[in-house]
Amino acid sequence: MIVYSISDIEKLSGVKAHTIRIWEKRYDIVQNRRTDSNIRYYLEEDLQKILNIALLNRKGYKISKIASMCEDDIKQVVATLCDVDQVFEDQLDGLALAMFELNEFKFLKIIDHHIEEKGFEETMNHVIYPFLDKLSIMWVSGSVRGVHETFITNIIRRKISVEIDKCTWSKNSNSRRFMVYLPEKEGHELSSLFLFYILRSRGSNVLYLGANVPISEVLGGIELFKPEVVLTIINDSFEDLPLQPYLDLLSKSAPECTFGITGYQTVYQDIKLPSNMVQFNNLDEIKYFINNNLRAQFV
Q: Could you report the per-residue pLDDT of 41-98, keeping only the tens digit for each?
């Protein structure tokens, strides 16, 4: 059982602690749970209810009206607002509700609507990544379980893979060659898959080696595929090891390649970039670099 403080509820729902206290006292909307030492706490069912209430309130429902509704009626109205034809503006709460309920149908309904309206890349940038940022905050605060993270990660991984398969393979033998991989003990596969999608969607010739790739296989891929650009993400790996020797080995083993690196360890550790290596601080910088490299082949 996950127990939340009022501070946790404030962070996860966006509703101020003062407002939650007023809801409890004036409208008796949320059960007032307290420990033996009189400390207020909340359960997962309370968080779900507050997320629902906050959503309805932002859509114009008065708290007094919501307070008169039974819990099933509240859920029904929220479900209506989640319908593909009436998707509410703030999608993050809807995605969070679907996650807590482990409701894949509701989660995909919201995501698929955005893909249809804005396209997959915009959906990743403006819906999925902001939601993953919120999920990371929930995870650090202990507000979600491992099953929630696994549930979300698997759905998004499948969705990215589907969109990758929709992309047309490059038939131009002269297309700029890219290779994407994650080092050993690196777990941010969703970001590397999205990089693969970005490259494939722009018609590049790209080799995706996947996650947990030993240095020997990286060098083998470079030798056989002969990429001009190699991209990797280094967040979890090299937490307990210096990153510099790894970067130096990559650089010296393939001096003809340009290596693009990003991730927490590339910033946290004091590294000196080899001459054929570029460091990125965010996804926008990577996309700018990719677009410029792809543009160069036609100049």
A: 888 788 888 888 887 887 778 888 888 888 888 888 877 765 543 444 457 778 888 8
CA angle 13, 158, 77 (to 5 degrees): 35
Determine contact, residues 197/225, Cβ cutoff 8 Å.
Answer: no
Q: Which of 107, 137, 164 is the last residue of a domain?
A: 164
Question: What's residue 139's pLDDT?
Answer: 67
What is the structure's pLDDT at 247? 96
Residue 122: its H or E element: helix 120-123
Rounded-to-integer distance, Cα 198 and Cα 229, Å: 14
Q: How far apart are CA 191 and CA 182, in angstroms?
A: 10
* Intervals of the chain under pLDDT 70: 1-2, 81-90, 137-143, 170-174, 294-299
Residues 101 and 223 in one domain: no
Q: Are residues 208 and 195 in the same domain?
A: yes
- Within 10 A of 66 (CB to CB), how many other CB atoms are there? 19
Same-domain pairing of 141 and 39 = yes
pTM to 2 decimals?
A: 0.70
Residues 99 and 177 in one domain: no
The reply to whether 160 and 34 lie within a common domain is yes
CA dihedral 211, 148, 120, 82 (to 10 degrees): 170
Q: Return d(Cα 92, Cα 257) in angstroms, integer.
A: 40
The parent domain of residue 221 ranges over: 168-296
Strands (E), the chain: 3-4, 33-34, 40-43, 177-183, 205-213, 229-233, 258-262, 277-279
Same domain, 145 and 82: yes
